[in-house]
Amino acid sequence: MGWDDTIVALATAPGVAAIGVIRLSGRRSFEIINQLFHSKDLHKQPSHTIHVGFLREGDIVLDEAVVSLFRGPRSYTGEDVVEISAHGSPFVQQQIIDACIKYGARLAKPGEFTQRAFLNGKLDLAQAEAVADLISSNTSASQKAALHTMRGGFSQKLKELREQLLKFSALIELELDFSQEDVEFADRKQLQKLITELSFSTDQLINSFQLGNVIKNGVSVAIIGKPNAGKSTLLNTLLNENRAIVSEIAGTTRDTIEEIINIDGILFRLIDTAGIRQHSSDLIEKEGMKRSFEKMRTADLILYLFDVANEPATEVKERISEFREQELKYLIVANKIDAMNEAEVRLAYAGIDNIVFISAKEKRHTEVLNERMIDMVLAGQIQTESTVVTNARHYHALKEVSTSLNDIKQGMDNKIPGDLLALDIRRCLHYLGEITGEVSNEDMLDYIFSKFCIGK
Ligand SMILES: Nc1nc2c(ncn2[C@@H]2O[C@H](COP(=O)(O)OP(=O)(O)OP(=O)(O)O)[C@@H](O)[C@H]2O)c(=O)[nH]1
Ligand SMILES: [Mg+2]
């Protein structure tokens, strides 16, 4: 497969840098670079070689650059690719790009290199999307998940699902062929078992999306509590910097403050909020409290912080039942244990689950809090080495797969004819194919690749 036009774009970030890489892909890549690079005929050079020389446009020297050659199909896009490592001046780079355009290239659209790689069968769609995820990854967990998918881990899992489904459909078809003779080739029990297994694997992938979302977008954590509980102190301690104002005056924090921390490769967006109390006549404080409640409701996790000298267990239990009623995920954090006898404090709150005892000010046991936060997020979930769905498009397609599997299961229970079962199976295969791009349409591809950066 090939396109007539050759595309060009800056592959590195725009702006001044040590070097900038300009990438050409298409049939005429070698012809175009030869117009600029005169010291040897690059057409005659072997693939996967690099060459140093001056780039000239007419009599004008544009730059001294390193040119790498990749002859298709052994290239990123599967086409002839040339990468020009030029000096990192945006002005110089623009001149080189303009010259390439003058000699027949056109400016690439966002993601067009990867789109060509997909269309040429170098990557499937899920892998291509993981390229964008890898580029935007900012933690080790998101990096791991993107790499796993990019290297085909997720696609392999889908392939296994599809193969099982095909096995199933082959058995059904066999029955259809012999429908006159009233024989049952496909052992119903075996079929039921197969569908159950398929549903299980699909649901596992669907469930991994919650973790996938966490890996990709981080977890929002609202620090909630009464005024003076030490919320801002805790924020500062976890961040390891004096970000929020701390004082002994109740009602110090008025507006919410958000900061990001990375714990064991997962991003947490910590939100320090205004202290909540029953009565306040201060308008600003009231508004602050309103925001605290909003953050509390929308956060992925609540850290309910209290001062052990000021809030007895009965009161804390009341808060807990409120969280449970609203189905909020919470951790209870008992603060200021440095001011009391720790053993006695632990005894006083003995009946409470999900509780951590710390001193935010003295940085005592805050590593335990970190561990518990990670546990809350990963609770019982598979680790990032296994397949984790991080992409909303894949998630929605998998939901459709799951629905079709349920239809098949119900159909079998109701003993519907084999040809109708075959229809449901085809629907299921269709949605599986949408993920890897075996089933795709132009609008969908344009939409997916438009979210890439130019030059990728
Ligand atoms: N002894 C002790 N004091 C603490 C601890 N954590 C916070 N404090 C003190 O408690 C007071 C209130 O701390 P803040 O962090 O401002 O409390 P806050 O919950 O943010 O209060 P508001 O913003 O008013 O809602 C300050 O004087 C802190 O130094 C702790 O672990 N031990
Ligand atoms: Mg505060």
Commentary on this structure:
There is one protein chain. This protein has 456 residues and is α/β, with parallel strands linked by helices. The protein has three domains: 118 residues, Gyrase A, domain 2; 139 residues, Four Helix Bundle (Hemerythrin (Met), subunit A) (Up-down Bundle); 158 residues, P-loop containing nucleotide triphosphate hydrolases (Rossmann fold, 3-Layer(aba) Sandwich), CATH 3.40.50. The chain is built from 15 helices and twelve strands. It has a six-stranded mixed β-sheet with strand order 3-4-5-2-1-6. Strands 8-9-7-10-11-12 form a six-stranded mixed β-sheet, with helices on both faces. α11 links the parallel β11 and β12. It is flat, with a radius of gyration of 30 Å. The model has no long low-confidence stretch (mean pLDDT 89). The chain binds guanosine-5'-triphosphate and magnesium ion. Magnesium ion binds next to α8.
Task: Summarize the SSE layout with pairings.
Elements: E1 6-10, E2 19-25, H1 29-36, E3 49-57, E4 60-70, E5 81-87, H2 90-102, E6 105-107, H3 112-119, H4 125-135, H5 140-150, H6 153-177, H7 188-217, E7 219-225, H8 231-239, E8 257-263, E9 266-272, H9 283-298, E10 301-307, H10 313-325, E11 330-335, H11 342-348, E12 355-357, H12 366-378, H13 392-413, H14 418-436, H15 442-450
The protein binds guanosine-5'-triphosphate and magnesium ion (MG).
